[in-house]
Design brief:
By secondary structure, the chain is mostly helical. The chain is built from four helices and two strands. The chain has a two-stranded antiparallel ribbon.
């Protein structure tokens, strides 16, 4: 049953990455030659680049998907916040496999939000992101902290 859950999660994550690629390809021709490639803390663009930079986030998303897929398939090669012993190996590996898949969802959703913001901001710079960027980053940071707490409590 655990393997079916992981396969469904992996397919979902791949679907998010594919959607990120589709969104980028769909909007690429409509982009101006210069697009924002960096935003400050209040959401204003402070660095611009060629529209080819719009493919950076999907490439990064695909690379993260592949790295996370490899790590979840080979947990013995990973670092853990606690010492992995014979006694806790199965629990720690399962927690890591679940957490990395959830973390990838958060990261890809952050990428989607950022990419959408770039596409909407490019023609009109008074647009705000659908979800504030600091909230998505905060969600990722909090999830990492929660995972460290859980893994340490279940040594």
């Amino acid at each position: 049953m655990e393997n079916i859950f992981f396969v469904i999660f992996d397919v979902f994550n791949f679907g998010l990455v594919a959607f990120l690629w589709w969104l980028t390809i769909k909007h690429y021709n409509d982009l101006p030659q210069r697009i924002p490639i960096h935003f400050n803390i209040i959401g204003k663009a402070n660095r611009f680049g060629d529209k080819m930079y719009s493919f950076f986030i999907p490439v990064l998303g695909l690379l993260l998907y592949l790295v996370f897929l490899y790590i979840t398939r080979h947990p013995e090669n990973s670092n853990f916040p606690v010492t992995v012993t014979e006694h806790n190996r199965a629990l720690q590996y399962s927690m890591m496999k679940i957490y990395l898949r959830c973390l990838l969802v958060l990261v890809i959703l952050t990428f989607l939000n950022t990419q959408d913001y770039v596409f909407r901001y490019s023609p009109e710079n008074n647009i705000k992101p659908r979800v504030p960027i600091f909230i998505t980053v905060l969600a990722i940071i909090i999830s990492v902290l929660v995972m460290f707490i859980i893994s340490n409590s279940l040594k």
